[in-house]
């Protein structure tokens, strides 16, 4: 109720922050169960605060006690950062390991509000306070310890309301991390025979609460049954059960049960489809026939198709609008699949205006036509069809790219700056790595001569994840040294160079980019040295040939038979002979690992690539050059019936797998079938570029030797 009142008060009282035209807020629940809200307020251009008016909206000083006694009482009680530090109070939770305040208190005295070189506002904190300092124990705190606030709001609501001038769009990212980061997690240890602690881990912090033995017995399946003898299992780990669960506090549970919003946005944002003709997305279930699916696809209208129909209907007002401006005046009826003119608040000065946002399209070679169509939609008013969109000054062009070029939309290199900006906002939740992917795409596939300026203008966005990493590790919230920033830029350039290498280029092909520190590059290159390089140059062929002779001399008859059978498949690919083998190892000690060593050594001695993998890390240590299956094949942590491995066809991983003659996978029964299916699906797709026939062969025609003991896997009955 207080939150709704606060939002309404801010929206309807222009003397607080000005004329509010938009806001977004999220609700977060603290570990002690109490909720609080984070909010970003957007005002119109005439109300936009400037350096001269910042003090009108935000103050970071103690209020004048004689003029504003109520505000003074609220600030003293709720808006003071409790003094902390090495010489003041070492036990405050805001201190890091070096006893430095992570919130950067106390702030510096300053007689005037100013903006630093990085765009952050430093509020006025005069050394001569208007009121007496506040006593905290033996320490007196004044303006450097005051949390920024708005005088009206603290007076009206008598609560903690931190107000700051927004320094950039990162605030939006900060807010929505609370929505996208997932639920808090708890790890609970339950025991039947003695009281245990419940360890609740939320966002890296741990709180402990006692759990009684009675509740534990109820919660675990190992509770004793009445009438049966009970064993003394106090020291047995098997009795304890660890449960990883989602943690919801009572307040959050009540909030969700009552159906209250955890976040809201004003005005509403309508996501606008961007699809080439007959390429829009259609959903159907497994029981739908192909004919019905096709009919549904034909009948379905996207927001873009409805936009064309709106313009073709003769609506003169709509014909003067851009695609992204339509939601300001029309709402999309999802049932009728058409744009309907807004009625509510049309004549109101503060009417609700929707915002349209087209889906982002990167300017890659594969998406260039779609990218150009999106570009045209940003500049052409009132198009009535896809073909009409390609008509420029009476000339009908065959492609969207030709139409965009004729309008000069691709000649201006400012477009790539705009593209990178928009890509950053679209990918703000996923991190800077994808923004660097976009930067590489622009370098590789787009005509741009001022790529140095592109880097200079966007290097902070391209390095943001590295900057955030330093801020998190050193509790630096606002300022990084020039050396730290340069280190972040170097890491971003190294990552960009690595991404360029997958396309056969490097940063050296773009000499105007800042030079990379070779020591940093070589250091990371050594740490991240590709498995491909290890397999190609990491073995001494003469030594391997000697080892092969020793292995072959010491094999028994069964081992030699398997050895020759597998090598026959390796040396004669494409002859229709089996390529998948399973070596059964009942109980261990059968010579399976010895056979693995012999096969790996033989293939490598003949300059071939043989991959040694295992499902378990401990098993990997027994194989020369071994790595876990997840590391070798880039298997995702969570798999299902449609999963694929996480590598691109241009990566070193793909190059390695394509060249591999033999794959040995130990302890295979310990891996879920979805992981095998993901590897099989990915290898078939990868090898199809070599020959289309490999699509129909298990693991893309690769010779695979799987081993293990299915007897170690307990039978599982679904819902048993």
From TrEMBL:
Pfam families hit by this protein: Helitron_like_N, PIF1
Enzyme class: isomerase
Keywords: ATP-binding, DNA damage, DNA recombination, DNA repair, Helicase, Hydrolase, Kinase, Nucleotide-binding, Transferase
Region Disordered: start-end pairs: 200-234
Domain DNA helicase Pif1-like DEAD-box helicase: 555-720
Biased composition (Low complexity): 206-225
Entry EC no(s): 5.6.2.3
Catalysed transformations (reactions): ATP + H2O = ADP + phosphate + H(+)
Coiled coil regions in record: none
Residues of the Helitron helicase-like domain: 2-41
GO biological process terms held by the UniProt record: DNA recombination; DNA repair; telomere maintenance
Protein's name in the database: ATP-dependent DNA helicase
Organism: Mucor velutinosus
């Amino acid at each position: 109720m207080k939150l709704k009142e606060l939002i309404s008060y801010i929206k309807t009282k222009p003397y607080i922050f000005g004329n509010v035209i938009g806001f977004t807020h999220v609700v977060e629940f603290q570990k002690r169960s109490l909720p609080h809200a984070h909010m970003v307020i957007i005002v119109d251009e005439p109300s936009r605060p400037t350096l001269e008016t910042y003090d009108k909206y935000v103050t970071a000083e103690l209020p004048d006690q004689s003029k504003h006694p109520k505000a003074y009482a609220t600030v003293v009680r709720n808006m003071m950062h409790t003094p902390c530090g090495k010489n003041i109070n070492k036990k405050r939770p805001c201190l890091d390991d070096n006893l430095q305040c992570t919130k950067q208190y106390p702030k510096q005295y300053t007689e005037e509000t100013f903006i630093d070189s990085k765009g952050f506002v430093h509020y006025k904190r005069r050394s001569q306070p208007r009121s007496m300092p506040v006593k905290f124990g033996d320490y007196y705190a004044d303006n450097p310890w005051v949390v920024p606030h708005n005088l009206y709001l603290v007076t009206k609501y008598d609560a903690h309301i931190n107000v700051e001038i927004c320094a950039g769009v990162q605030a939006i990212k900060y807010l929505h991390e609370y929505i996208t980061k997932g639920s808090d997690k708890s790890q609970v240890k339950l025991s039947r025979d003695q009281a245990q602690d419940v360890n609740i881990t939320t966002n890296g912090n741990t709180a402990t609460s006692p759990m009684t033995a009675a509740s534990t017995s109820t919660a675990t399946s190992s509770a004793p049954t009445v009438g049966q003898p009970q064993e003394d299992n106090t020291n047995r780990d098997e009795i304890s059960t660890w449960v990883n669960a989602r943690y919801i506090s009572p307040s959050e549970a009540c909030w969700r049960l009552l159906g209250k919003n955890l976040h809201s946005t004003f005005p509403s944002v309508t996501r606008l489809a961007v699809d080439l003709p007959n390429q829009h997305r259609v959903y159907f279930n497994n029981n739908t026939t192909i004919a019905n699916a096709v009919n549904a696809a034909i009948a379905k209208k996207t927001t873009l198709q409805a936009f064309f129909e709106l313009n073709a209907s003769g609506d003169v007002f709509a014909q003067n609008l851009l695609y992204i401006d339509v939601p300001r005046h029309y709402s999309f009826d999802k049932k009728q699949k058409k744009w309907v003119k807004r009625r509510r608040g049309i004549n109101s000065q503060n009417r609700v205006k929707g915002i349209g946002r087209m889906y982002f399209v990167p300017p890659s070679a594969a998406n260039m036509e779609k990218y150009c169509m999106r570009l045209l939609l940003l500049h052409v008013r009132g198009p009535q069809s896809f073909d009409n969109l390609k008509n420029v000054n009476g000339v009908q062009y065959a492609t969207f790219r030709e139409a965009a070029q004729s309008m000069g939309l691709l000649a201006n290199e400012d477009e790539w700056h705009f593209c990178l900006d928009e890509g950053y906002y679209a990918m703000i939740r996923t991190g800077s790595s994808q923004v660097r992917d976009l930067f590489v795409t622009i370098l590789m596939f787009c005509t741009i001569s001022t790529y140095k300026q592109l880097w200079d203008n966007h290097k902070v966005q391209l390095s943001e994840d590295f900057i955030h990493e330093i801020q998190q590790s050193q509790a630096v919230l606002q300022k990084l040294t020039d050396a730290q920033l340069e280190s972040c830029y170097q890491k971003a350039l190294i990552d960009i160079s690595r991404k360029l290498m997958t396309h056969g280029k490097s940063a050296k092909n773009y000499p105007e980019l800042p030079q990379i520190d070779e020591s940093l590059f070589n250091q990371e290159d050594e740490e991240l040295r590709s498995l491909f390089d290890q397999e190609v140059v990491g073995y001494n062929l003469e030594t391997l040939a000697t080892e092969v002779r020793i292995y072959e001399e010491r094999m028994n008859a069964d081992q030699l038979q398997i050895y020759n059978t597998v090598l026959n498949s390796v040396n004669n690919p494409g002859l229709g002979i089996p390529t998948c083998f399973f070596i059964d190892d009942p109980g261990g000690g059968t010579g399976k690992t010895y056979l693995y060593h012999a096969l790996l050594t033989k293939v490598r001695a003949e300059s071939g690539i043989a991959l040694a993998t295992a499902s378990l890390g401990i098993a990997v240590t027994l194989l020369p050059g071994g790595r876990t299956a997840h590391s070798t094949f880039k298997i995702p942590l969570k798999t299902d019936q449609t999963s694929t491995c996480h590598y691109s066809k241009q990566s070193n991983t793909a190059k390695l797998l394509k060249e591999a003659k033999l794959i040995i996978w130990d302890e295979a029964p310990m891996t879920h079938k979805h992981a095998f299916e993901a590897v099989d699906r990915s290898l078939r797709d990868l090898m199809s570029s070599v020959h289309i026939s490999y699509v129909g062969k298990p693991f893309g025609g690769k010779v695979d030797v799987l081993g293990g003991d299915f007897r170690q896997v307990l039978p599982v009955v679904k819902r048993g």
